[in-house]
Amino acid sequence: MTDILPESFFHQPTLDLAQALLGCKLIKETEQGVASGYIVETEAYKGQLDRAAHSFNNRRTKRTEVMFGKPGYVYTYQMHTHCLVNVVSNEIDIPEAILIRAVEPDRGMSLMYERRGQMPAKNLTNGPGKLTKALGITMEDYGRPFFEPPIYITKGYIPEDISIGPRIGIENTGEAKDYPWRFWITDNPFVSRKR
After folding, report:
1. 25 Cβ partners below 8 Å, 6+ apart?
2. Which molecular function GO terms apply here (predicted)?
3. pLDDT digit string (tens) for 6-61?
4. Which of 79, 91, 153, 184 has the most CB atoms in a 10 Å sphere around its CB?
5. pLDDT in tens, 86-105
6. Contacts of 40 by beta carbon, 8 Å cutoff, 6+ apart
7. Rounded to an integer, what distance in angstroms lies between the CA atom of residue 111 and that of residue 87?
8. Is the CB of residue 43 less than 8 Å from the CB of residue 194?
9. Strand 74-79 with 182-185, pairing
C-alpha cells in the first residue's frame, strides 16, 4: 500500500499526467478479490476547448460534475453497455480528464477470466470497456479518489518508449479528432488498437 501515488502526483498538466500514468499500476479491490494492471495506454481530454471532451464549452452536467473538481478523482461514465474510467486532471473548474484505454494484467488473472470469459490474455484488458469489466470498476466508483482503496494507482515501472498519436473513436469532433493526445507504451501487446 505504501506505493500508492499521493494526491500531489495528479497535480500536473493533463498531457504530462497522461504520459506519467503509463507504467503505473491501477488496482481495484472488490469483495471477489483484488485485480490490477499496468496502465499501457491513455487519452487526454482537454475540457472546454476540446470538442471530443464531455466538458467541451464548460458543459457542466450531473455526469461531468466531478471533472470540475480536484484532480486525482475517478470519472466513470457509461458508453453503450460499457463503463469507462478516467482520471480527473488539471485544477478546480478546469474540467479535464484522462481516459485509461488499456492495461496489462497483473494480479487477479483468474478473476479477470471469470468476469470476461475465456479468451487470449492479450484481449482481456486491451480496451477501455474491457479493462473496467476485468478489474471490476463500475459506475459506483464515480467520484472516488485514486489515492486510497478500493480504487487506486501505485508506482509501477518507467516505460522505455512512449508513442504518441491521435485519439480513437471520436470521428465527429472536427479538428479535435487529430490532436495527438493518445499515449501508449510502444509495442506493448495490450494496447487497444491502431487507428
Report:
1. 3, 36, 37, 38, 39, 106, 153, 154, 155, 156
2. hydrolase activity, acting on glycosyl bonds
3. 999 999 999 999 999 999 999 999 999 999 999 999 999 998 888 888 888 888 88
4. 184
5. 999 999 999 999 999 999 99
6. 22, 23, 102, 103, 104, 184, 185, 188, 190, 191
7. 24
8. no
9. unpaired
How big is the CA angle at 167 (ends 69 and 193), to the nearest 5 degrees?
120
How high is the mean pLDDT of the chain?
94
Is 75:89 a contact under the CB 8 Å cutoff? no
Confidence of residue 1 (pLDDT cuts 50, 70, 90): low
Instruction: Return d(Cα 134, Cα 114) in angstroms, integer.
Output: 8
State pTM to two decimals: 0.95
**pLDDT of 114:** 97
DSSP letter string, the chain: -TTBPPGGGG-S-HHHHHHHTTT-EEEEEETTEEEEEEEEEEEEE-GGG-TTSTTGGG---TTTGGGGS-SSBEEEEEETTEEEEEEEESSTT--EEEEEEEEEE-S-HHHHHHHH-S--GGGSSSSHHHHHHHHT--GGGTT-BTEETTEEEE-----S-EEEE--SS-TTSGGGGG---EEEETT-TTS----
Give the closest residue to 167 by CA, choosing from 52, 13, 40, 39: 52
